[in-house]
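Fill in residues.
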């Protein structure tokens, strides 16, 4: 894996980018929690694809958030990033908030997206099945919402608070940074007009969802399917909002099978 900074739009943006693997290019767009590094599911995908995993503006060390007002601006930014990387089109996999960005990219710049995977994506709104307000949740409430089994080893590891006081403070600051950035696009509800544009998605699309998602109910899988012509749904059992961490092997198999046209 290579980690580097990519300059976008003559320096208005500095993007932290992790890249690895070989094969067809694949863009992974992370959710509101950010990435934890070169996660195992990314490493596994990189055995089959050239994976590009940027940190969105305002996440980690990626700068330029002040030049982004809404999700349409984010689509323009991602077009600029792909231009800077010299990539005309590629597969796009988006998780949660990243799923919303991926769907917007596929709707507004359809020439960029060869195949699209939306994993536990936000962006639509169902009054009967509201997306949980994770901004107001305690750590315990968030753990229950995110994970099929909050007591599993992976859930405990990812929700653990560092013992070192300095590390605790750093983790807290990063979390606040990410929440503040996510709030710009998701608060008060994650409905920013995607429903008016989603009919423009032409890429073959897989909607992948954890059955036990307590943050974005599984009903949204059907909502996305009904909004994207010809899309297909796959529900991962014993997974919540974080299927790529709870079942990385199953997640990669689902994604790879679809991208390979299976």
């Amino acid at each position: 894996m290579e980690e580097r900074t990519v300059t976008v739009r003559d320096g208005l943006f500095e993007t932290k980018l992790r890249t690895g693997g070989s094969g067809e290019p694949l863009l992974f767009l992370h959710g509101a929690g950010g990435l934890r590094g070169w996660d195992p599911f990314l490493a596994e995908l990189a055995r089959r694809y050239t994976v590009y995993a940027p940190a969105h503006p305002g996440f980690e060390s990626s700068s330029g958030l002040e030049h982004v007002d809404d999700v349409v601006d984010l689509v323009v930014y991602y077009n600029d990033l792909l231009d800077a990387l010299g990539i005309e089109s590629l597969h796009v996999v988006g998780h949660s908030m990243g799923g919303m960005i991926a769907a917007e990219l596929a709707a507004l710049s359809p020439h960029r997206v060869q195949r699209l995977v939306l994993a536990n994506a936000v962006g639509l709104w169902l009054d009967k099945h509201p997306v949980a307000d994770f901004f107001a949740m305690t750590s315990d409430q968030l753990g229950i919402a995110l994970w099929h089994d909050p007591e599993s080893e992976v859930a405990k590891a990812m929700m653990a608070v560092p013992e070192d006081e300095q590390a605790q403070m750093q983790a807290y600051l990063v979390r606040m940074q990410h929440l503040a950035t996510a709030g710009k696009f998701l608060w008060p509800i994650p409905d920013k007009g995607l429903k008016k544009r989603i009919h423009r998605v032409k890429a073959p699309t897989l909607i992948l969802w954890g059955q036990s998602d307590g943050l974005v109910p599984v009903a949204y899988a059907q909502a996305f399917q009904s909004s994207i012509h010809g899309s297909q749904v796959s529900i991962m059992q014993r997974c919540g909002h974080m299927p790529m961490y709870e079942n990385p092997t199953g997640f990669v198999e689902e994604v790879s099978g679809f991208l390979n046209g299976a």
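The chain has one domain: 2-259.
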